[in-house]
């Protein structure tokens, strides 16, 4: 499994350089002989470094967002008016309206100025400000992927811990095998199959769940909550099935790394029960990479469900991205691209900021 | 590794695998451990050593049953893909001259039924294997090549060069890969090469980071100092000493990359960003969805391409994990 975060790789490298095993001290431990952590100046330096890195990344996204969409072949105005009889004056008006008649550097400065004030341009397709469209669709995506990320992180953590604790056994092999298989399945395909089985119905089994959308739109109050939950079952199931493998494997590998630790022998020698050794000693030390995974997955909250939202016609950002692609509605694609990338950068920053709290060796 | 250098580059391998990331820490025959002149009775060429280490590698790989299964599946699928013109013929993918009628159920003539143009689904599946494997392998090769080049250069030169390069790498690493690939595939023209490019240039950063760490570990070993003292330049050190030690890691990384590249290819094709004139598994799923296979319950059209993608991706993952645990026993993936 590839690790998708620099910080995980960095944490691994640190662990190796530091002589392998971590000390027996748990992250939450504060005995009197240990200096209070994180030491303020070191933490501040670390903080400043990470913050400036994130700002540079965000600016880079801004610049990429502009130039990536200027290499597109063809005239966006021509593409927009395809199939509609338009005169030369109308084309010129449209071009002026979207600022396409200005030289590239002027377009760039205008674009930067507008983007910094939160104006992402106007969608060709919906004739509506991109920011407004995104704000409308954001809650649905946050709801769907937020629930899915929480569920599959918990599931992956639980199964990964069990797997590592009895590694090599039948349970471990079944667990890892199933996770790897589900991880190899394309999420959109799994979604389509679930729709066939549970929504359309196979043979005598009737359709149990709706085929798509977020609600039936006829209910209010508590009934509406249930209705939305009913619509969410299949998309969440798809996301969890495809997503939990990564958390499982990361947790398993990092716990296996801890399992030879002397401090576990000590914990057992003083008579702790097996599950206490696991819960209080081994797992907290192995948690760092898993926490990173959770943050990464939260960063994917925006982008991670493009396919599942498309398949289940969920009215979120992913579905909007698909609609924008099929035109292609460049301002909208551009705006969504920046939102997706920005979410990742912010979540990575949060993960970096959380490390020193979880592991005092980071950031010194 | 030419004659004058003799077995020197590998001596580090035999010595101390201190950083843990090195190649398999096997004790090598004493004649290679010292870089002394190969004197014994049998003529000792570099090829003897390579043959032996290949045999040793295979012995270890064989111990991983899942890896062997993956390899067997891949061999079969690769053979089927290569033999596609012989097995199903070109008629299977012709829209105008299709052998069956639209959306037939599975029968003796068409074991997996037909699509909306009357083409046999089984034939399409065989043709689709070619595209998936080609794109998967080439995209993974491209990304790993970029990653290795950048990783070795950053690890070797260090200093401000490495700082700048790794900043860029980190930046790519936090980009949502799929979104970037989709955007690239959107703004470029529709072709198989676009898909390869879009996947290749978005997934290299992980490799770059791994390779850089490994390069730094290798370069801290004494034989690199020896090579420098003997007058080896940058290029010599990187090509003859660093690269051979990094390659095992790169190999397992490539194998793991292929499975995600195949999944991404299917995803892009499903979103309609692939080459519409080529039959691919993702494209078949898109066709199936557009033909209403979901609402009418045509599972025989929808299920096979997805299973094919999953099987190939899983096979590559299993091979990659087996390779990884053979080559880097400390990573512990196979334990």
Automatic annotation (TrEMBL), chain A:
Region of interest (Disordered), ranges: 1-36
Compartment(s) where it occurs, according to its Swiss-Prot or TrEMBL record: Cell membrane
Pfam families, alphabetized: BPD_transp_1, BPD_transp_1_N
Transmembrane segments: 51-72, 138-159, 180-209, 229-250, 286-312, 332-358
Lineage: superkingdom: Bacteria
PROSITE patterns assigned to the protein according to its UniProt record, in alphabetical order: ABC_TM1
Entry keyword annotation includes Ribosomal protein: no
Residue ranges annotated for the ABC transmembrane type-1 domain, each copy included: 138-351
Keywords from the UniProt entry: Cell membrane, Membrane, Transmembrane, Transmembrane helix, Transport
Membrane topology field: Multi-pass membrane protein
Family statement drawn from the similarity comment of this UniProt entry: Belongs to the binding-protein-dependent transport system permease family.
PANTHER family registered for this protein in UniProt: OLIGOPEPTIDE TRANSPORT SYSTEM PERMEASE PROTEIN
Protein name in the entry: ABC transporter permease
Organism of origin: Streptomyces pyxinae
Lineage: Bacteria, Bacillati, Actinomycetota, Actinomycetes, Kitasatosporales
Automatic annotation (TrEMBL), chain B:
Secretion signal span: none
InterPro entries the UniProt entry points to: MetI-like, MetI-like_sf, OppC_N
Protein topology in the membrane: Multi-pass membrane protein
Comp. bias intervals (Low complexity): 31-45
Keywords for this protein: Membrane, Transmembrane, Transmembrane helix, Transport
Domain ABC transmembrane type-1: 129-320
KW Cell division (keyword) present: no
Keyword Transmembrane helix appears in the UniProt entry: yes
Transmembrane segments: 66-88, 127-152, 164-185, 191-211, 246-271, 299-320
Domain of life according to the entry: Bacteria
Region (Disordered), start-end ranges: 1-45
Subcellular location: Cell membrane; Membrane
Family annotation (PANTHER family): OPPC IN A BINDING PROTEIN-DEPENDENT TRANSPORT SYSTEM
Family stated for the protein in its record: Belongs to the binding-protein-dependent transport system permease family.
Protein name: ABC transporter permease
Originating organism: Streptomyces pyxinae
